[in-house]
Write a structure and sequence with these properties.
Elements (H helix, E strand, L loop, with lengths): L4 E13 L8 E8 L2 E6 L2 E6 L3 E6 L14 E7 L2 E8 L4 H14 L3 E10 L2 E2 L4 E9 L2 E6 L2 E6 L3 E7 L10 E7 L5 E8 L2 H23 L5 H13 L5 H5 L3 H13 L3 E4 L2 E4 L1 H9 L1 H5 L1
Antiparallel strand pairs: 1-2, 1-7, 2-3, 3-4, 5-6, 6-7, 8-9, 8-10, 8-15, 10-11, 11-12, 13-14, 14-15, 16-17
């Protein structure tokens, strides 16, 4: 192997034929370059070109190997006889690091067609379709096009769908991302890699990052006054008398606002107070609890 190695670790894995064909778990090395994934056990090795990878599923253990594995990553790929998969299990943070590297190798630098914004709020925009280069980062996605840069944080994403919207071919699969910019405007961007497999992988990356973010948010504990602050900022855009809202003296109100701010849920600027993306997620996903 002459390419630079980007990941090399020991793990337990099993190669499967199709969706349900169960192989036998073995211990070996997982070696990854920017072009291929190698599964090595003793003198045997299986080489998977990364261009054949069509799916990455983290944490969901396939039913036919649940008796063998706990937390895993399942990689689907096109083999000579059809779709195959490899289920990999490793200890500690190794698997998380490997998945992050694998997504970057598969997606960074891909040419994509972009229409941005396709919508602002409910208004359809006549934005041109341009080509750009995709780059994923921790909790964000960037597309560089003609000196401009489309960037949105995963925490700002409201919804992800797929459609056939961009390009000359009607069957070109497009990722439809609805998100909120720093000014609170809801925008919809269309992103279409040249191959549909990268649409699937990009959607997987976004959902994985959002699931991790959601787990972090679920661990945030809120007092009732803090909940009232979040709902009120959401409903009024921050134009509210917090002293009346919280029935407290100015020092108490300041303490509550500082607590919510320290949890990265509100942001003070020259125009007042707004919800951060995390704050919007809490209000939208825990609204019944917040209103209690």
């Amino acid at each position: 192997m002459t390419e630079d190695i980007v990941a090399d670790f020991t793990a337990r894995f099993v190669l499967n034929e199709g969706a349900d064909g169960a192989g036998t778990p073995v211990n070996g090395r997982i070696i990854t370059t920017k072009r291929r994934l190698v599964l090595a056990t003793g003198d045997d090795k299986t080489t998977i070109p990364l261009s054949n990878v069509i799916d990455i599923n983290v944490g969901s253990v396939p039913s036919h190997v649940k008796q063998f594995f706990d937390d895993t990553v399942t990689i689907g790929f096109e083999g000579p006889t059809g779709v195959r998969s490899v289920v990999i299990e490793s200890e500690g943070d190794t698997l998380e690091t490997f998945v992050a590297i694998l997504f970057r190798v598969l997606l960074n630098g891909r040419t994509v067609a972009v229409k941005h914004p396709a919508r602002v709020g409910g208004r359809v925009k006549d934005s041109p379709v341009t080509k750009g280069k995709l780059r994923i980062k921790k909790r964000s996605i960037e597309v560089a096009t003609n000196g401009e840069r489309l960037r949105f944080a995963v925490e700002s994403v409201m919804n992800i769908n797929r459609a056939n919207k961009l390009g000359e071919r009607d069957d070109r699969v497009t990722l439809v991302v609805k998100w909120v910019d720093d000014d609170g405007l809801t925008k919809t961007s269309l992103i279409a890699p040249a191959k549909s497999q990268y649409v699937n992988l990009l959607a997987r990356f976004l959902r994985l990052e959002f699931d991790e973010l959601r787990e972090e948010i679920e661990e945030i504990e809120l007092t009732n006054p803090e909940k009232r602050v979040l709902v009120s900022v959401h409903a009024t855009g921050g134009e509210i008398d917090f002293t009346n809202l919280l029935d407290g003296d100015p020092a108490y109100v300041t303490n509550v606002l500082n607590s919510v701010k320290n949890k990265d849920l509100i942001l003070e600027n020259g125009d007042g107070i707004t919800l951060t993306p995390k704050g919007r997620i809490i209000v939208s996903q825990r609204i019944e609890d917040v209103n209690a």
